[in-house]
Design a protein that fits this description.
alpha+beta, 51 residues, 2 strands, two-stranded parallel sheet, 20% strand
Length: 51
């Protein structure tokens, strides 16, 4: 599993729960693509894709 360090100097930061798969994953991916800092949380590592 890879991690990316984000800068919290961004004006917008989102916390996404259940972000390791499904809707949460897609929301996290799209927010990050638009320059929003994303803090992704999940219950387990299973199902984790790469952003």
């Amino acid at each position: 599993m890879g991690e990316t360090t984000i800068s919290f100097e961004s004006k917008r930061i989102a916390v996404v729960t259940g972000g390791n798969k499904g809707i949460g994953y897609e929301i996290s991916r799209q927010l990050a693509a638009h320059g929003v800092g994303v803090v992704l949380t999940a219950r387990d590592v299973k199902g984790t894709g790469s952003c």
